[in-house]
Specification:
This protein is α/β, with parallel strands linked by helices and 143 residues long. Helices cover 38% and strands 19% of the residues. α1 runs parallel beside α5.
Length: 143
């Protein structure tokens, strides 16, 4: 999660909402990492999680990321959560919960929905205060 926070700070330096993410193989190898880039890429889907999923898929030559663990500084939104379900990510570890759009247990829990044929293991709150403070400072500075 410390690496994800470093990526989030990079997003902030580029004027993006400070969210960083990375995905790690079952053997502990970092497959891909990214920070939020929707503003810079003019792409509403360029959340850190989506960029990581795309990079990891390209690296593995497969859209399925079975056995992987995803680390992200903010609880994923519905778009990102469902992409992780489709990618068959094994586990999501997030820092700060997102009560407004969080789809891993806060607002809703798409990654463990009983109607879906794949569910992720969820661990939330890892370095939550540090991530939440980074987000609060960013939005306070924009007002």
């Amino acid at each position: 999660m410390a690496r994800a926070l470093t990526l989030a700070r990079e997003a902030e330096r580029h004027g993006e909402v400070p969210v960083g993410a990375l995905v790690v193989s079952q053997h502990g190898e970092c497959l891909a990492s990214a920070w939020n880039r929707p503003i810079g890429l003019h792409d509403p889907t360029a959340h850190a999680e989506m960029l990581v999923l795309r990079q990891a898929g390209e690296r593995l030559g497969n859209y399925r990321l079975t056995g992987t663990t995803f680390y992200v500084t903010l609880e994923p939104c519905p778009m990102c959560a469902m992409a992780m379900v489709h990618a068959r990510v094994a586990r999501i570890v997030f820092a700060a919960p997102d009560p407004r759009t969080g789809a891993c247990g806060s607002l809703m829990n798409l990654v463990q929905h009983p109607a879906l044929n794949h569910r992720l293991e969820v661990t939330g709150g890892v370095l939550a205060e540090e991530s939440a403070q980074l987000l609060r400072d960013f939005f306070r500075g924009r007002r």
